[in-house]
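Postdoc handover notes: sequence design on the structure in folder B. Input tokens:
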């Protein structure tokens, strides 16, 4: 029971943490994005370069982050401990 709660918590935090990365990757495609989104986009680009995903186009990285975020949030809801 305790491991389900921890798994739910980890999946939810990772899922919520990937959502801004998806937004930042999509902001990289838009040249008229706000300054805050551009700063977030630069941070996402550095992270993508560090993990070796810089060869992937920003749009497809955004789709990848979005898919992973949805999958993690779904997993968190699925393994949520029920009474």
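Designed sequence:
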């Amino acid at each position: 029971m305790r491991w389900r709660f921890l798994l739910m918590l980890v999946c939810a935090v990772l899922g919520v943490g990937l959502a801004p990365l998806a937004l930042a990757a999509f902001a990289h495609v838009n040249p008229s994005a706000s300054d805050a989104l551009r700063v977030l986009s630069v941070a996402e680009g550095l992270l993508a370069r560090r993990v070796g995903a810089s060869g992937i186009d920003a749009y497809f990285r955004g789709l990848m982050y979005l898919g992973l975020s949805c999958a993690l949030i779904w997993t968190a809801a699925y393994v949520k401990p029920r009474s």
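Context for whoever picks this up: Residues 2-78 form one domain. Don't rerun without checking with the PI first.
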